[in-house]
Amino acid sequence: MSDVIVIGTGAHTKSIIAAAEHAGMVVRGVYDDDSARWGQSLLGVPIVGATTQAIEAGLPAVLAFDSPKQRQAMAALLKLEWATIVHPSAFVNPTVPLGPGSVILEGVIVQPGCAIGQHVIVGANATVAHDCTLEDFAQLSPGVDLAGGVRVGRGACLETGAAAIPNTRIGAWAEVGPRAVVIRDVADHASAWGVPARAESREPPQPAGDPWLSVQRVLVAWVFTGAAMTGLGYLIARFGLFLRQLDVTNDGLDMHPMHMSLWIGVVFIALGVGVNLFVPFEQSRLAQRLKPQDTRDRARLSFASVLSVVLALVGVGMAAYLFDARHFPS
Fold it and tell me: 73-111, pLDDT tens digit by residue?
């Protein structure tokens, strides 16, 4: 008899404990990061403590997490000796290599020519025909049926009752839904459902962009809008002044209707100033909502506010210049 420990309290945990005990092993403890479960037990096996404490046990371990990605992350984190568990009712051809940390549950059939990688879980009553390959962290749920020559990529998961015809490939981290029948290759990170299985892309999410860069873009867009309105207003007003000078040099020619451009220009400048003065208030609102974490974030937000205030002052100066008695018509 050999002692083992189980890490994780997923849906597989009880099945793995039972398989280990049927194989003549003694499960000394379960380790999980949910502190609320510490002191409880599963099938009479105590939940001892956090996963990092498993190192102190000094015993071979097996990972019971439901998620292949979680098993991969934990295997990289914990430098342990990994146990391989095969339920006595399973048939695994003696020529089949089993990677460390893999679990073969009851009723499984694995025929000659297959290869099973590390930390693979093969659920109850699954059938793996000749010359199949299950790469590291792959997972077959109960009742999965793989015909000859199927390759299941790293971290791929086939749900209950799924099947694959000969020589198909299921890509890394792909998912095949319950009772789906794979008749053509499934791409990496894809999700396939139905009979026959139809795959949809399931690319891993890209890292989120810098939120402060997005905020900065929004604020700068407001600043540019205000500056554009101020500049346009000044051009319109200056055009009115030009018409006034033209009116003065052409006695008798009535150009007063065109002096409306002065007022229109001033209105645009006022709107531009208002937009620029709005930016500091918007910056304050976003800062409270997104909670800047360091001085760099605050400085990047403050830059737009300072620029907006400067442009607003420039706009006020433009308006004052236009309202000067020497330039504005009576």
Answer: 999 988 899 999 999 999 999 999 999 999 999 999 999
Is the Cβ–Cβ distance between 113 and 130 less than 8 Å?
A: yes
CA distance 193 to 160: 12
| 279 has a pLDDT exceeding 60 | yes
Closest CA to 230 of 170, 270, 283: 270
CATH of domain 3-77: 3.40.50.20
CB atoms within 10 A of CB 224: 15
Cα four-point dihedral sign 186, 187, 189, 192: negative
- Domain positions in the chain: 3-77, 86-206, 211-323
Residue 63 identity (one-letter amino acid): L
Look up the CATH number of domain 86-206.
2.160.10.10
